[in-house]
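Hi everyone, sorry if this is the wrong subforum. Our group has a chain we'd like a structural model of before ordering constructs, and none of us has done structure prediction before. Sequence below.
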Amino acid sequence: MTSVQIETPSGPARAALHGADKARGIVIFGHGAGGGIDAPDLVAARDAALGTGFTVALVEQPYRVAGRRSPAPAKRLDEAWIAVVEKLRGAELGELPLVVGGRSLGARVACRTVKETGAEGVICLAFPLVPPSRGDRPPQSRLPELEAVALPVLIVQGASDRFGMPPPASNRKVVEVAGDHGLKADPEAVGGAVGEWLGVLPTSR
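Answer:
Right subforum, don't worry. Here is the predicted structure as tokens:
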């Protein structure tokens, strides 16, 4: 594993790079809002991607690198993510076919920025579909963020996730596994879903 620091408009981010022998693609994952890149589902997804010939980068957003637990606003998260992906593709990982993704908040960032990053697929672990309601305001679904992605999408969701279960679509596969939003109950199932999907994902090379 190699750790690299990358400057972004919001300060330095950090990426843990795990190289695959004769890599056929790259997967770049982001973390959840309050957690890091060592979350069990991210580790399982990393290992599965490596096992199918994808080099993997696990990215820590600048707010995490700075020691803060509260996420930055969406615009800042997206800007930082785009800067990191551009740097990794330009200097560290090259121009292999790219898949982006992450858990929870990281999955949302990956979905919102697919056009800018040039990704060919998206992996969403524990996508936070409908947040808890606040006061008298009804909860607002994040489904439009998924619907805006025309690329192949994999969603791995806990059966009892409090944020709900995203619907499948023609380009979107949803795999239900045991557990809640943390996806800690069955990491093997998470890895299995990721490995199977990547194994048949059509890429540009």
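For your construct planning: Residues 168 and 174 are 6 Å apart (CA to CA). The mean pLDDT is 94.
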